[in-house]
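Title: Request for sanity check on Nuclear pore complex protein Nup155 prediction

Description:
We are preparing a figure and want to confirm that the structure record we downloaded matches what your pipeline produces today. Could someone re-run it with the sequence below and paste the raw structure tokens into this thread? We only need the token string, no images.
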Amino acid sequence: MSSSFLGNQTLSQASLADAVESAAGIVDRQLLADKRHGDLTDLLKVQSHKLPTASGLNDYDYPSITDTRAGLVSLPELSTVKRVPLPPELVEQFGHMQCNCMMGLFPEISRAWLSIDSDIFVWNYEHGGDLAYFDGLNETILSAGLVKPKPGIFQPHIHYLLCLTTPVDIVLLGVSFSSPHLDPITDPGFGEMHLLPDPLFTVPTDNTYILSISGTESGRIFMTGKDGCLYELAYQAEDGWFSRRCRKINHSTSSLSFLVPSFLNFSFAEDDPLIQISIDESRHILYTRSEKGTIQVFDLGEDGQGMSRVAAITQTTILQNAALVARTIDRSNFKPIIHIAAVTRNESTNVHLIAVTHTGVRLYFTTCYFGETRSRPSMLSLLHVRLPPGFSAISTQQRPTNSHMAHYKRGTLLLAASQSEDNDLLWALSPDTFPFQSQLMETTASAPIDGRTWAICEVPLPLYGLGVPSDPLGMPTIDPPLVVTQHMEPVRRFVLLTAQGSHLMNKLRPVDQLRQLLLNNNGPDSEEVKAFFKLHRADQACATCLILACSKLAVDKQVADWAARAFFLYGGEAQYSIGGNPPPSNIGPTFHGNTSTIGTSGFASPGPGQTSFSGFTTPAPGMHPNQMSTPITSGFGQQPQQQQQQQQQQSTFTSGLAHEMMFSGKHDGLCLYVGRIVRPLWDYRVVNTFTVQGKQGQKEIIGSRLSSEDLGWFTEQLSDLNDFIQAHSQFTIPVMTDSMTPGFTPRGTLPRPDGAMDEQARRRYQAELQTQEKISTQQMEQLIERMCEVLGLWKIVCDHQFHVVAGELTQDQQNQLRSMTFKNFVVHGKEICCALISCLIKRYLGDNATTDAISSKLREVCPSLYSTEDAVASKANELLQSAKITQNKYERDRLLREALLMYKQIPQQLDLPVVCGQLSSVRYYDGIVDLCLTAASKRDPQGLALHHYKNGAQPEDTQGWQAFSLRMDCYRCITEMLSYLLSTSMSHPQAPSVPRSPGPPPAPDPHRLTNTEAEQYTEQVFKLCLKSEDEVFHVALYEWLIAENLTEKLLEVQSPFLETYLKQTANYQPDNLDTLDLLWKYYEKTRNFTAAARIQAKLAERRGTDIPLPQRLEYLSRAIMCAKSSSMRTSSANEGEFLHELEEKMEVARIQLQVLEMVSKLPSHHTEDSISRLNSELMDITTLYGEFAEPYGLAECKLAIVHCAGHYDPTLVESLWQDIVDKEFEHSLASAPQTRMATISKKLVILGKLYGATERYFPLAFLVKYLEKKSCEYSFDSKWVFTTLQQIGVSMPKLQEVYDRLFKSKDPYWQAMRKPLHLLTVLRCLVESYTDAPNTVPAYERRAFTTTCLDNVAAYLVELQSIVGGDTTVRTLIAEFKGVQAKLERLQC
């Protein structure tokens, strides 16, 4: 037995999903290989309808099994099941026959019939019982036929119609059964048969002699007449305007023939009775055969409801055409034609009809031009002449002769040939033994029949399990050879009816032939069993062996054991060969299109004229020598890139020599069998969509395409195969080493130029190949187990109303399910399977039912889809549902705690958001926190997330990132719960909402949280969260607080993790200002003022436009405050120096702000860049002066910069003040004098208070002189200048001194302005203002100042009096000074 078939070695090349997908690829290739069988036209070598061909002249057309290299002595083709004599009651009736006797078969209901005169008898030909009869006719019965009724016309209990014709009437009788729904395989009799006593319809024959009757699947009834016409018996429920309920229509003359009596419907044509009808239900074509061999074609239309005569061909024409094709054959062999049979779409695309002659010659016809498979019939053209056995030049086989009856269906031809008047010889011709050939090859068998055959038919038995649907693309599909479907197709049974009774014979399948060989030889140890493997090729024979070996029937136990032994005995070994070509096939050419691609070959199968990778094509099934199997590459199980590299290595290794690596027949046979079991499912959708009428109108529902019984059959087949694999797991191989890994090529073992290889290298290659086969077999085992589980789950869902469970899926899942094939469902449908399980469990929970039973069933059927953890989760869900409806608080809390404990046992398998949502619905918020923290810990047991976080979340740390993401997914459930509670607590309790429907207001929701409750839960959960020692969770919690803008609450947190989080976040996200703000606020709150000050200073000095300049000043201001607070608590030189630096920066920053404000007032198109620069960083005073104040002429700013720098330049200072004054005058030019004076005074007062204390930067004498000149120029009030200076804080004595000195300087400006008395006028006002308010001068200075004023006034009077010819102004001024003098003298007293 094999040492490389199975074992306990675990898959190491790929995960379970990869193994299943890899095995699914093998199944794909196997199904593709099984589809590569030839169409009938390919086998007959017909290229066009205009180029007919012939076959049967070569030995390999009918190869003799005994002459082949297989060495079989005989291979049983037919098996006589039993012979059932006629019922004794019928034998007696023959004695009463007067006119006519006829016999026939109704295989649809397993009945035979006999008519004697006007009576008809029907009985079960399987056992001769259930005899029924009808004697209600008065005329001799001429023909009988069983047809299906049209739907919707008769009562449901009428399952068939029995149509009887006499010379006078055509009668329709109803047929019913007592048990019509029994399995036709186990009870083919359909129960007891009943003929209704009263005819349903009776129609006159109009003297037409009806010879045969046939019906269609749709219920149409056709009849052939002795007059050579084709008739139809049309019936309907009620009479119409132009039609009766039942009428006879002549399709050979006119569509209105039913209106004309038959004696007027004669033709002048030669009388040629129609004796046979054959209907092609797949194409809706009807054929007729006449007594003289004329074949007619009638088109029933696309829907099978029409009728038109298309073509006819006489036997003479057929004879001539056949003679032209087979010129060496005697023409007598081509006539007469004894049988015609329609060929359905499933058997051939281009061959539509077969006619059989009395010598067994088969004539193949078509009704359409080649390539027009969808067109309606338009002709009848001969395609091929197939001669029977015995026509080859050296053939010794006997030829069929005197055949009088035939039957053809699905490739098998039965001929009843007369040996004598009382005996027939039955011939059987079938291609089943030689599948996948490039031409038609058939076996022949013969068996004697007692009596003359009256009728031959095949018993219609359905496929086991599910029938193969049409092609997914809607194209015609050709049925594969029997070897592909034999596991699901019952043995074909034929019934021959003679005067002695019924003969039941089976046409054996290859599996039946193998069974018979095993029984005949008492086991597999025989040359005949070995020859069977040679004949069918090892992989095909192994697949056939598995059908027997996997049988669980008690009667098959011994055969199953023998088949298993044969499987390992003749299944061969994986082989590696270099050089040479494979031995030739046993018999004839093979069909190139079937080059097998089982295994793991990455190469496409070669077509005709192509060669495989090894330099030769793989021999076809049926003709291969032992142990020739599937070629593979040594890159099995690898990724495509690895396979490509391996192929390159192999190409280099071979150096042009042909080499091939092949798996054993056991491996390929297993793959074949798996593919054939699931063939009806693999590439087809698993669901259908139905439209039903509901309360809301029409809606679509999803239904299973497979019934529960179908699923049970497929599950049983796969489970039996899986059991077989498990039972033979002792056949192991050595443990794989480095030298035997897939893709390994031994070094130093290049073949010699002649292709030879040393023994050691050959052994190593053999070991490598066995390892690859081992892995492939294990992958196939994984696929089988997965399919068993998926089918088992599917059956459970079907048993629970599939459409209801599927209706609970999400819309996306439903759409995915609609388009999913069985292959996709198995390979990629785990998510959908889990979703179906969830919906199924929800149904139980929704009904408040316990889940123990369904959980146990799911665990038993699909453990990988529904694990122990899933069962625990289902039980926890059940407890949770119970808690929802429990009113007792203590009981409710107990159930919640138990559910939480169960959830905590399986946190890694839970869908946390769903579970947390369920816990939230019962307000078990503490349980959510507990569960999520537990899940995070279990999903990251090594703490990789914390290490990843603390090390800067490096992108190359993929494991750490995955662990961190897993934890964050868990924490997200907690933060989402907190967000819900927070939003609920802040929502307005009386917030109105629009009603959903008119009517009274809805009742308040008792489960809705109030604001107070939500607030309490929020605080409770938040406190519980803060107690956690999970640092990564604290990170998630802090980030949630920041996202919710709850920074104040964050700063209130007292946790050792907060400072670490803020510092780490600031380090990893240096551009995140919010984090830095939080950090200094945290330090302020914890009274770490030094750290806060340094962060604030860093923020102030930070470059970038994200912090505007005012914000920088605020940071500096706060930093100074924190630095001062720190120095108050602890004083050090460093802190003092830091404070001094901050203050200096603050002073410069204020100037920068002033510059910014000034620049911002300038036209924007000149200042955008400057504004951006001023906002982006703190600058020194040199930069501010040279790059901003000076270019933009900002006198005030320049003055501030000079003052800040301590730079003294009198000329510069005076020029700056002059610029300031000039700009103010310029800006106020459009205003009224009073307004101008007020505006300018306000500006001067602001600046004067800034710099007035420092005479170096407040040149009083210059300002007085310049302002007075401006005042004189603009005729301002005489008091305006000194009043403004007094507001700045200049003392009265100082003003009087400056003005006095200015007057005595005798500046010619005043003369030029023609206001020589301007200063004297101002001085009079100044002194007078003193006399009016002496308190403006301190008391201790008042006497001295008064004396000074008196002296100065006297001097001013002398000056005025010295003016020659003084005018009125002078006199007035003198008078005013004297008045002031008098006031001063009074003050001095």
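Thanks, this matches our download. The CA atoms of residues 687 and 704 lie 4 Å apart.
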